[in-house]
Structure formats: C-alpha cells, structure tokens
Design goal:
161 residues; binds zinc ion; single chain; alpha+beta; 3 strands; 5 helices; 3-stranded antiparallel β-sheet
Length: 161
C-alpha cells in the first residue's frame, strides 16, 4: 500500500492527490532478469494531473534497476545483473555523459560548491550523496525536476529504454 504524497508535485496543492489506479512497469532484478511490477498512480483534484510514485529500485524511463546502474557507473563489470544488460548500461552511461553539464547546472542550485561537469567526476560526487542512485533520484526529481538521464516529466507515461 502506497500512501498518497502530501503535496502535488505539479501544482503544490496540499492534500489534493487521490488514488487513480496503477500502471505496469518493467524493471530488472539483481540477476538482470526483467520483471513486472505495479506503480500506484494518483490524480490531483486541483490541477487534474496524474502523478505516480516510482519505488527507488526503479529508474524513471529506464528498465535496468537503480543498484545495477550505480554499480556499472562505479566501474563494476561483472555479475549477472550487469552482464545481461551491458548494452543498455553502456547507453545509459552515454546518456548520463551527454546530460552531465545540464544536470550539474540543475543541481548547483543547492548549497555548497558547484558540482563538476565532467561525467566521471560528477558521478563520483553524486554517488557519495544520499543513499545510492535510487534515493538520489527521488531527491533530484522532487527538488529539481531532473533524473540522472534528463528532465523528469512526472505526468507522462514513461517509455522504457
Ligand atoms: Zn496538482
């Protein structure tokens, strides 16, 4: 059971979200096998947008799970979860590298020194904040409207890469 968020992420109205069904999504397990799970959706009574609450093990718009992506980005190249999804993970890294400057700019609104824009340096900073890529993504989406791979459009039904 997923509780509805207190504040609508689109219009910031309080207590306006009501349950609005589910949608099916894919993600990989630790062995890299694709599984389906259900994501709870909510609709805002105020702005009428639908929003969903993705669990932190899954990435928006990406089928490979957060831990596997984080391990690959940190240099791990073995393990079934990685070996079964190497081509996808290479594309994810390419996408992250292309997005790194914009991502750095987007999150530099937070206090402290500006994060690096070089992709590997940026990753090594990001991996140390929060508790892994999944947790970090939740904060980025909530605070800056971005993920590790692009802008986050929260009411769009995600297409998986
Ligand atoms: Zn709203």
């Amino acid at each position: 059971m997923v509780r509805s968020p207190a504040i609508c992420p689109v219009c910031r109205a309080e207590g306006s979200l009501e349950a609005h069904g589910y949608y099916e999504r894919d993600t990989t397990d630790d062995d890299g096998v694709v599984l389906q799970f259900q994501v709870r959706r909510f609709r805002c009574r105020h702005c009428r947008k639908t929003v969903s609450c993705l669990p932190r093990f899954a990435q928006p718009y990406r089928v490979v799970n957060s831990n596997t992506i984080g391990a690959y980005f940190s240099g791990q190249r073995t393990g079934r979860g990685i070996e079964r999804n190497t081509a996808r993970l290479e594309r994810y890294w390419q996408r992250f590298a292309e997005w790194a400057v914009q991502l750095s700019n987007a999150i530099s609104l937070s206090p402290g020194p500006a994060p690096p824009t070089e992709p590997l340096a940026l990753w090594h900073v990001l991996r140390t904040i929060g508790r892994g890529l999944g947790q970090c993504t939740l904060g980025f989406v909530r605070d800056f409207g971005v993920t590790f791979f692009g802008a986050y459009i929260c009411h769009r039904r995600p297409a998986l890469a």
